[in-house]
Each structure stands twice: as structure tokens, then as C-alpha cells.
Sequence to fold (293 residues):
Amino acid sequence: MSKAFGKIILAGEHAVVYGYPAIASTLNLQVCVSVQHSAHPGLKFVNPKIDPEHQSTALFAQILPKLTQLFGNCVAELEFQIDSDLPGGCGLGSSAALSVALIRAILDFIGESRSVKEIASMALELEKIFHGNPSGVDHTVIAQEGLIWFQQGFSERIQAGRPFKLVAAIASPHAGTLAAVQAVRKNYEANQIQVTKLFEEISKLTHAMRTHIEQGNLLELGQLMTRNHELLQNLGVSTDELDTLCLLAKREGALGAKLTGAGGGGCVIALVSDTGSSLLHAYEQAGYRSFVC
Ligand code: PMV
Fold:
């Protein structure tokens, strides 16, 4: 059985598509893939929480040919059983985790190993099926694991000066990363000066957030997460529900909160200074699934 964790983006989503940096981290929910020779080859979902968008036959019809291109004709005889803890359509990296887990599973099955970089570059080929032209942050952090800095294909680990705890809450699913990225592109083309200003401010705070993570300045880190959320609101990718979940976090004493991922629905993350149990309780009372990450 091969696995890949999901991910959150701490700073820089959307701006990262335009070459600005992002900070991302893996989280403790995963996609598992097991492979066997079978008379009924193909992809089978055992516990399907994968994004419905990603379950469309049209998209899956493209995955096996891509895997065959990468690994040869042996793929056509294999059955892939896919199990997932990761809710789909929430900005938690379900498609990138599926891509990385599929590649790890085939490598395991054929008894070959590849570097993290090679696995990430194969995963990019699969991610293109789901997301068109992804920045690469999702499959890079998922292949590399841990807390990373990502910019235009370059990535490196960040060492946190002090451990920090986030609470994630899941709102309604978004309409797909591709749709959100295309909406931002339209906005960018219509308002290049204003949107570039937003990206530049996001980039500045992403650099500052890295410093605060490394120095363990959690108060400042939280404030910048909240500021990042405001800039994402200005970019037009937040929703009333995501804003409400961020406000609820602040009311419960979180140091900061933001949407994570493409927006238009999905997930928020809040930085907490305690165990997070009161915020988890508040989200539960409000009817939202939430977890510590
Ligand atoms: O797929 P999501 O929801 O995690 O969003 C990915 C992050 C974006 O910056 C919005 C897109 C990208 O390719 O980086």
C-alpha cells in the first residue's frame, strides 16, 4: 500500500501561479493506493472522498494513458484500489495526493525507486489533467512532505523556530481549482495593475511569514495570515461562508485565520495558541467538520 498526505497552503495561493512564493505544509490526512495484477484493471475507489470533479470518467480516462506513458504497458494490466481520508474539492490537495500515491504505488509494484524530485515531476503530469497549468506547489509539498517554501519549481524545507498548531475547518466544496484559477486570470487580465499590487503584497507577507515561522513569532504569523485572507477577499476568491469561519476563529481567540487553497469554498485554517479544543468545539457546534493539523 502506498500513501500520500494532503496539504494546506499557509501563504501565497493564487499569487504562486504568477511566480510569487508560497508556503505549504503536508497534513495528516492521506490517500492510499494499492496495486495488483487483475482481470479487471483500472482505478477503483474503495472509500471515495476524492473530489467529485476528479472522479469524472473523462478525467480518469486520461490518467491511465498518462501512467502508461510514464511507466509502460504494464499499467494496462493493473487494478488500483484507492482509499482516501481527504475530502475532495476543499483545497486540501486531494488530486495531488492521488497523483503522488499512484506513482509511489506503481514504483513499489515494479520494484523501482525514484528521487523525490522525479516523483514530483511525474506527479505534475497527472496534476495537469486535473488542473490545467498548476503552479506545482501542491504536488511538490506532497512529494517532499513537511513545511516548505515554493517558488517557480524551486522548493526548500522551512524549519519552524517554534511548533505551531492550526485548526482547519471544512466549508462547502469549491467549484474546482481550475475554475478559481481561471476566474483570477480573468480578473488579472481586466485589472492588471490592481491585481499585480495584490500579488505583490501577498508576496511581501509570504516572505515576512517565513521569517516569523523561523523565529517562532506566532502573534505576527497569525496577523499576517489574517491579512493574507483579506487580500484573497480582495482578489475575489473568498466566500461569505469562508469569511464567517475565519471570524469565528478570531472570536474564539485564534491568532489569525485564512482560507487555504483555491477558495470559492473549501477550507479555512486558523492559528491557535492553545490545544485548539475550544475552536474545534465551536466549529462542531456550528455544524462544520474540523481537525487539528
Ligand atoms: O488545489 P488547491 O485548492 O489547493 O489550490 C491550489 C493553489 C492555487 O494557487 C490556487 C493553484 C496553483 O496551481 O497553485
